[in-house]
Structure formats: C-alpha cells, structure tokens
Amino acid sequence: MSDVEGGTPPVQPFGQPEGRLPDPEDSFGQRLALAQRAGGLVAPLLTVLIAFVMGGLVVLITTGKNPIKTYQAIFDGAGLNWFFQIPWDFDSVAAFNLQQTLIQTTTFILVGLAVAFAFRCGLFNIGGQGQYLAGAIIAVWVGSSFEHMNPYLHVGLAIVIGTLMGALIAGIAGFLKATVGAHEVITTIMLNWTVLWIGVYFFGLGGPLQNDTQTSVPVSNDVVEGAKLHVFWGDPLLQGLHIGIFFALGALVVYSLILNRTTLGYGVKAVGFNPEAARYGGISVARNYFLAMAISGAFAGLAGAIDILGWQFRLSTGDVQTSVVGFTGIAVALLGRNTAIGTGLAALLFGALFTGTSTRNLDPDVFQPELASNLTLLIQGLVVLFVGVDILVLWLLGRARRRKAATT
Amino acid sequence: MTTLAVATGRIRNPLRALAWAGIVLGLIGAFIALPPITTRSWVPSLLLALLAALAGVWAITRGEKRFGWYAIATAALGFGLAYLATRSEIGKLETVVVWSALFASMLRYATPLIFGALGGMFSERSGVVNVGLEGMMLMGAFFGIMAADKLDSWFLGLLVGILSGGAMALLHAIWSVHLRADQIISGFAINFLALGITGYLFIDIYGQEGTPTDIPSIPAVNLDFLSGPLGWLGDLDWIGGQPAGVFTAIGLIFGNLNLMIWIALILVPLSWVVLFKTPLGLRIRAVGEHPRAADTVGIDVYRIRYGAVIASGMLAAAGGAFLSIGFVNSFNENMTAGRGFIALAAMIFGNWRPFGAAAACLLFGFSSALAQRLPEYSESAAVLFQALPYVLTLIAVAGVIGRSIPPAADGRPYQKQ
Q1: ipTM score assigned to the predicted complex
Q2: B196 in contact with A at a CB cutoff of 8 Å?
Q3: Domains and CATH numbers, chain A
C-alpha cells in the first residue's frame, strides 16, 4: 500500500511500451522482450499455455485421466466445436452451449473493462465484484418493480440505474483516493464485502427486497417480462443468447474511443504513466483518479444489470455470496493487457472455460464437473500468477544473452 | 500502550488517558441498560454518553484526535444501543445478551482473525503487501483437516496446515521479492490458486459426502479450577440479580477455551515484543520503511522479507487450521469466506500494530458473536452486523478517525544494487 500520498502508481501500466522503439541491432530476445512489454501476443499466449499445461498435469496426476480428452470435453461443453460443425446448425446442442459461453463472455468483457480502465490510470480496481453486485442488486429491484412500464423505458431505466450504481460504489473509492489518498485496493476490498452483506440483507428472509410470495426463500422478486432483454439466438425459455452481448461489444468500442480519442482518456493515461508529470503538465490528478474509478465502476455496474435482465432474472443470497465474476475481471484485464481486443479475447477464453466446466455442460463421463470447475479456478490463478511476471521471461532471456556474451 | 501505562500508574499521555476514560464511560452507558443491570431508563446512559463525548471533544480539541474520535463513536453507539435496549422486551434481551456466552464466542470468532492479522502485520511491516492472507488461511484450513484425518493426529494436522500456508507464502515471496511482480496481483493469484487447489482436492478426496465426523480436533484447555476454588466468590452474588457471579462468568468464558485461542492471545504481546523490542523487529521495520538504508547498514533485505512473508503465511494458515479442526470440525469449499480479508482490515484498522490489530479483531469478533445471536430480533438485520468490520475500516482509512498510515515501503519491490 505504497502511495498514500498519491505518488507513483502501485501497478505498472500494463501493455505500455518502455519508451523505446525496436532497434534493428536488437537480438531476438530483446525484440521479444519489447514485444511483450508492448502488449504483444507472445507473453499472454505463453501464460495461457503454461497455465493449461499445469492444469493438465494436475488432471493427469490426481485422476489419471487423459488431460487432452478432458480439455476437449471442456471445449465441446463450451460449444466451441459449433464453429467446426459445418453447415452450421443454429439449433444444435453445440449452438446451445455456445450461447451459454457468449452469455458468460458478455459479463466478463464488462467486468474486465472495469479493471482495465482503472489500470490505465494506474489504479487497481479490485472492487469489480462489489460494483457488479451493486448494479445487479439495484437492477433486480428496478426490473421487478414498475410492472406496467413501457418495456423499452423499463429496460433502459434498469440498465442506466445499474450502471450509475456501479459508478457510485467505485466513485467512493475514487473520491477517497483523490481526496485523502486512501489506497484504492483497500477501499475497494472493503466496499466489495460491504455490498455483499447489504445484498444478503436485502434478499434474506424478512429483508426489504425479499420475494413477496415465496416468503421462506431468501431470493428477490422476479424481473417482470417487460424488463427482460430480448433473446435473439436460441430459446428464451432455455436461456438463449440475449442482446446484452451487443452492449458488451459496444463497451469495448467506447473503452477504446475514450482512451484514444478524448481529452478525458488522454488525462487518464497521462496520470497512469506518471502522476507527477501529469500534475506538472496541468492535468488534475485527483479529478482523473475519481473519474477513472467511476467509469470503471460503470462498466461493472452495467455487467450486473445486464446479467440480471438478460438471464438471471432474480438474485438469491446464495448468488450474492458465491459470485466471483468481478474477480475474474482481474484475470481478464491482466491477460488482455488492458487493450480492447485483448480484453474481448481473454473474456471469451474465460467465458468458455467457465461454461465448459459447469455441471450443466461438461460430460460427467469424461470428467467430474465439480472437479473441473475447481480446475478453472486453478487455471485462473495460474494465469494471474504468470501474467504478473513477464519479468521472469525477461530475466531468463537476459541471462541467456549474458551467458552468450560471456562466452564470446 | 496506554492501557499498560495507565495500569502501572505512569500516565504518559493524559489526553489519551482522558479519551480512554471517555471510551470506558460510553461502554458503561451501554452496559447498564443491558442485563444483568437492565436499567429500563435511557437517562443514565445518556448522561454517561454525554460525559464520554465531552471527554472525546476535549481530547480532540487538544490534539489527541484518534482516540478522541473513538470516545465520541463509543458514546454514540453506546447510547444508541442502550436506547434500543430500553425499548426492547426484557425476555428477549436476556436471551440475546448473555455476557459469558457472548465473550466466549467473541474469542472463538476473533482467533482466526488474530492469527491472520498478526501474519499480515509481519509481512507488511517488512514491506510486502499480503492480500493473499485469505488464500493462505484457506490452505491451512484444508490441509490441516486433511492431515489430521489421514495421519490421525491434530498436532500433525496443525503442522501440515501451517506448512501448506508457508508454502503458499513462499510462492508469494518469490514473486514479490525476487521477481518484483506486483504484490497485489501476486496476492490475488494466491487466493485463486488456494481456492482451486483446496476445492479440487476436497472434491477429489472427500467428494460430496464431505469430511468425516471423527477427525481428531485441537483440544480445549480445561481450567475448571477457575470456577472451582474461585467459584465461591460467585456465590456471594454481588452483582445485580444474575444467578452466577463475575468469577463464575470468568470460569464460563475462560474455563474451556480451545488451545489455539490461548496461543493467539499469547502471540499478541509476543509479536509486540518481537516487533518493537528486538533487533529482528527493528530490522523488519527498517526494511519496510526504508529498504535502501537498511541495505546500506548490512541488513539482508531479501532474507528479512522472505522470512516475514513466510511467517505471515504460516500464521494465517494456523488461523485457518483453527477454523477447520478447532472450531467447526469440518471443511467446505471456500470455508474462510472472507475472514482473511477481515484480518487484513483489522490489521489496517489497528494501524499495523499488534495490540491495535488484536483489539480490532476482538471488536470484529464481537460483532460476529452478536450477529449470531441477534436473529432473535430480526433475521435479516443481524446480517448487517457482518458488514460492520468493512465499514469501520473504510471510515478508518478515509481518515475520519485519525489516519491509518502504512509502512513507507509497503508494496514496493526492492532491487539490490
């Protein structure tokens, strides 16, 4: 918790070049290193590969099952085999699985952007989970009230309020960072748990938002038909793919536009690179800290609202307590190197992994789904672990080079 | 420590002592409205609360901000509690407020937090942020119960649990000290890994049935003599109309506590001595405040940090092992459920100091103990007590009640020259 006074950012701005262009004289290793620091494909791919290989070893050692077959079953469970089943059948089992994967991807894109945007300002938003829950909680309230409202207005209202709620929760952390320099990691962790328990209070037995008819079940009211997002692929009753994915894709574009085409984005990035220099250049560091956090939270709040209106429709105390969506956003942003495209791809990877290992989708004859879902957590942990240390790769490369230099 | 100073008659800081007096008055204000005294009138509590607030204001205006605010907060909370108590039925009040049971369960809830918070303190005092406490605690909980089951010994279970937390911490140390990775990312990776590893092995080994019920557990320390020879004092029945006197209550609270609770209580002063009264503690603090200076005078920064981080993992894991084989005697996936983060919060709330952190743990433990009994009044509102630690910590870091200031080099990797 280093920079209480708002000094250097605690986190290296990932995916930023070292301020040096590749030189034709560079060795292969140096070029590779530069490519990695510049957010090249090599380090993330290597990270994923290492994580999957280690996960495979775990499968092999503990169960003696063929890891490749297991991964293939997860691949099929995620519906990714649909792309290879030409001609494409839009009603097949694979298509259904793929819809589930894309529903997950939608969420992960948004929570990933929530973490990535703050990273670009040199802030570590660990509070994606709380902001996501805040958006979901308020969206389920709006969505289940106002039964006779115009559907378009209703959906719009729920989404806007959910987004604002996420921004508000993250804004608290941003405000505290900007004014008294309270470290955002600590405040967002505290906010996560505060929101979690408030959610449990709301939907718990006797809570203010608990179900009106099922008084013995700790769950919210159901979102009314009019407030549900339109399902454009698959059966709405079987949780088909809803239009939320276009919100997520749109958010990727907005993210990219804000950062690269607006004054706001310039300020955010400048503060992320070097707050002191930004301050010297006349950019308000405090203002950008606050805005970066609020926008981050808006992405996460939107994710929560879309999940509720798109497929969950209700929220139980169990959902609130067991959800880890926001934390996956950290892995998504880190793996995607805080770029829009990278975040989209990383979200797809984790979306597929989570869907492919769920009890509903994984073939239990090949691998026990309960084990596989823990395997997913393990792989996620390994990805986060290794993505943080491209310095390890750099060090290995550097040592090889030094050795070469010593012998010649 | 002011409490110690007051106890020995050497009052080093009269303002802080005054603030403490305010805190005590606020607590008394709440206490008299509750069983066994149960005044049934809020007037005396209000008077005491006003006195407490006055002491707080006096201390704040003369420079003792932190404890002054504590006194005001205690006054407000104490009066609020007392007012609610006078409004409630006596019968309900007496089932909820059973001091001996509340204190015993406060100690049980606080113990894993104390282990975690002390662990986090060592790590952060040496300059390594440890948000992986949760994961290390979870490792201790799972491997503790697994080893206790397979090796049929609670001691070996505890040992293996502690070692598993140490192993996780070693990983965190390699990443944050040698590889200079971002310590928060590495800590979070530890949490995910621990969740994955323990969940995977739990399903693989125990499946859907869960852990067996006949696992050897960490024993309780029987101190029956507390209610024996001293018990007659209780018969004098000199406080209120409570059937059991103060000494019997002490017997009830401390007579049958788990071994790990005693160890946690002993570790608090021990950590204080190590951190503030030994050369090792000075080195740890030097490395956390100014690693370059420490390096210059010949302290091995890396070795100190490795040691501190591994110790922190082992302590957190001991807390986890207490959860699984000392407290509930079973394991389920993600059983720590945020306790590692509460420990982190307690450490920050306690300003990176052993007694402060332990006091925060006891406060948070008390709120858990109360939350467990409050459903008598309202099922859902009791849940809000669970959020209390986090809200209080938010207020603390926001600087309303005196700023919490971390070690200067906390979170910064150090590169040797």
Answers
A1: 0.81
A2: yes
A3: 40-407 (1.10.3470)
